[in-house]
């Protein structure tokens, strides 16, 4: 009890006072150290154990794996006596590899496993999805001799996290056809797929199913519902659920703010940001990215600058995406010099997205001088030009042509031809009688 509540000193004191200890007592003390991240003390106690059972070894292997020390975890696994190495021992070691994304080690051990339980199949599926290898995850899933809900959830959530949302919904349908009733984990994955595909009707059907099946509306399910309605544009539905939540965490606040931002309701996004600041939940980096995006869509330059400066107040260091939003905000407002100086003073190296935001603003405001300066900076800081595939020259060519600077456009065309750079194809639309649209 003391160990599970995190009171390790009292747990150890009681352990030392015991006149007689059995293997369960030793395991309880070791488990307390492991769960509190003190593998050194756990190892010392493990070495002193007079007798060990399978649980003793499993606790140590799992503890080393969760602390990231897979080398020691594997060495401990190899030392387990043959008679104590059961299916759980193998599963814990394989799961340790899978959680760290080291699927080669997991696969080798998995194939040697004398017998498998449902959990190890799910660990392999989730592990491959973790590293983005959805094809291999599906291949493992297809090998499962007898599937259960956990296996289906691993596949559905893995599909969703990697953006294979149509496949996730297809798997969800097959799961139901096989007679499995979805649980809270299932619906969170399916709602995320609906949100990413903007399938509001499908999302509403899932919501109805949640109510009909009496599934527990835990924070993950409610957050997924808010996120689905917000991303699908039904902000009224998202707000209805949000306002009835008893505990509002960062995820639900961010979903609402992002939903308002994406759908052009800048004032509402800013209002919610203000409400979040007044609540017990502190904004995180995702919050600020959503609010800054809202400012970009609404053209709220001064407000955006003020919000950006608040990140320091919450102990948050702006990332490249936050700077990119601010560059975009300043650039669209025509403050190209300010945007350029911001890029030059960034604490990290600007990427193509940041430079692209400034170049896009230069195109809008036809500032060829700034474009030339940016191109010089890009040439000196990036290797993409030398690789023969830099879109910035194509943008420069378009800006010169659009401003009537045909001589400069001709020189850039020669550079493009000499370097073999690939121009991004242009695309324009022609509407006839408001009925047919042809793309050129």
Describe this structure in words.
With 440 residues, this protein is mainly alpha-helical. It has a domain at 147-247: Serine Threonine Protein Phosphatase 5, Tetratricopeptide repeat. 69% of the residues lie in helices and 2% in strands. It is built from 25 helices and 2 strands. It has helices at 8-17, 23-35, 39-48, 54-66, 70-79, 87-99, 103-112, 118-130, 134-143, 149-161, 165-177, 184-197, 200-213, 219-231, 235-243, 250-262, 266-278, 285-298, 301-309, 320-332, 336-344, 352-365, 368-381, 391-402, 406-419, and strands at 429-432, 436-439. A hairpin with a 3-residue loop joins strand 1 (429-432) and strand 2 (436-439). Helix 12 (184-197) runs parallel beside helix 14 and helix 15 packs antiparallel against helix 16 (250-262).
Key descriptive features of the protein:
mainly alpha; Serine Threonine Protein Phosphatase 5, Tetratricopeptide repeat
Offer a concise description of the structure.
The chain has 440 residues and is mainly α.
